[in-house]
Amino acid sequence: MMMGSYSIDRAEELYRSGQFQQAEKVCRQILIQDSKNVFAMHLLGLIAFKLGRLQHAIDIIQRSILLAPNQPTFYQNLGNILQSSGDLDESIVAYQKAVVIDPNSAEIHNDLGNAFRLQGQLDNAVISIQNSISIQPNCLAFYNLGLVMQDQENVDEAISYYKQAIAINPNFVQAYNNLGNIFQTLDKLDKALEYYKTAVRIDPDYLEVQSNLGTIYINNNELNEAINCYQHILRINPNSCEAENNLGIAYNHSHQMEMAISHYRRALQINPKYADAKNNLGFALQKQDEIDQAILCYEAALKINPNFRDAQKNLGLAELSKGNFIRGWYYYTARDGRDIDTVNSLKDANIELQGKRILLIGEQGLGEELFFLRFVPQLKRLGSWIAYQSGAKLKNLASRLPYIDYIADKKEGVEVDYTFLIGDLPRLLDMTSADKIPSLISFNIRHHEQEEMVRLLEKTGGPPYIGVSWWAGAKEDIILYRRVDFRLFAELFQGLEGTIINLQRDSSDSEIEALSEFLGRQVHDFSSYNADLEEMVILLGSLDYHITISNTNVHLRSAVNGTSFVLVPFYSQPKIWMGPNYKSLWYPNVHLYRQTLGLCWKDAIIQLKKDLFDALKCNHTCLTS
Hints:
By secondary structure, this protein is an alpha/beta fold. Among the domains are: about 1-70, Alpha Horseshoe (Serine Threonine Protein Phosphatase 5, Tetratricopeptide repeat); about 70-170, Serine Threonine Protein Phosphatase 5, Tetratricopeptide repeat, CATH 1.25.40.10; about 345-435, Rossmann fold, CATH 3.40.50; about 460-625, 3-Layer(aba) Sandwich (Rossmann fold), CATH 3.40.50.2000. The strands form four sheets. The protein has a six-stranded parallel sheet with strand order 11-10-7-12-13-14, with helices on both faces. A four-stranded parallel sheet has the order 5-4-3-6, covered by helices on one side. Helix 13 (about 205-220) packs antiparallel against helix 14.
């Protein structure tokens, strides 16, 4: 259709090539010569949409429909624009009118189905998309069916539909990405990685996949690969605050804290209201002992998002590390994503426990359970009957505590008046200051048990008997995993007589052999005692010294009135019991030796060695006097 030197074909060509302003000029020239040219008018609406003028686009296309009410494409594009504007109801109406005019358009049925999906009408979505496939199998329809199945949590069907989309179009990157997302959710990271890598090979600049790949690499502790992904995103989109934040996370995990902090700050320059980056910056600063600055960051994150549970929990831990117990316990309630206002002190809630039945539920790790058990006697003194629900590993040991009336299995129903999480006890019992810290829990070792253990130790060599552990956490968990190098023990034990007892859980023969080689003496393996905490308590109570990284055995050793010398890696997660300035208010018999900011152990080892030799000298003096 020609209009002087202007044609609709030329306008469409310019539109398809992205030259929207030139296309707009051609359309207006056509309309000057023919004000009722519906195709030029319709194209003007599409151009307005591309230029971000949504309402103008809707108005123009509706005008073209008034002039040509039997054009299904006009209704379809009106539906597309209405959907983009967020008006799903009117979008569906437009698609339905298009379907009436052209019931054999697979594309229109698919668009209608996708609108139903976005509106939450999933059954109608399935019907429309299947209509599209019955007219002509196409990758977009199979992809949209996959989205519907994901919304319905039908994972296997979603996977099947995405694969069918890929069979039609092997370069369909969105389908590969969604398959990766599904397998990541299923914790099948190798499979997720395979799909993400395929998507990136097809389109290296598909930034969502690069971000997803980065997440997998962080989870796999392949931090350099993760950094490469986020740097690629930033080369294409320098203002991606998410990529800057994720780069910070990758550097944080690799203990390059200055780099992490700089990327968190850059993310906040791009978006000052980015609560995740505020929280992450706070956590990085807290790891560097800048607690006051960390607290300011957590508070800023909570101003942006008052229900940000992770920031609340981190704020609680930071306040507890300063000895600010009121705020600390309040925000600590947010652990595991809980509402901080679901707990109040028994006094403020006017709860009387005299004659009441209480179920206490163990939570978090074994060390945390042992730590919080010290609050149970105070609960018992209020006149309550107490059942304790914990894992099998702690069950027998907890049954030795006189203030626990009953040990409940995890799946057992116990008739009670109140159920409390053990980590909430400090807040429930109004533990507001250091002078309210309860006494340590205590496990009594029977005389014959200790005699038998001493005989076992004597078979390994002469005293003093020194128990050692060198890592804690889970090796696959790059946040919680912490370890010290064997060379530290070699330096520490130089010139020190005694028998080394391995307490490290899950230690391999090769690790024990390597440690023995570093120390120049045999390390005797008692690691199997970790499987039975009652036996471990007896062993810990029979040792002369205990040198370790922070773990469950520190709590057990304290419960038999034993001293522990604890090595603390600089970037390890802060523990409540470590207290302000790494001088434990909670465990007077635990000595902490922290790595310096430069990841140097020299000062810590010098001090630990001095304290250890002083203790040896003191014990020798006591024995000979």
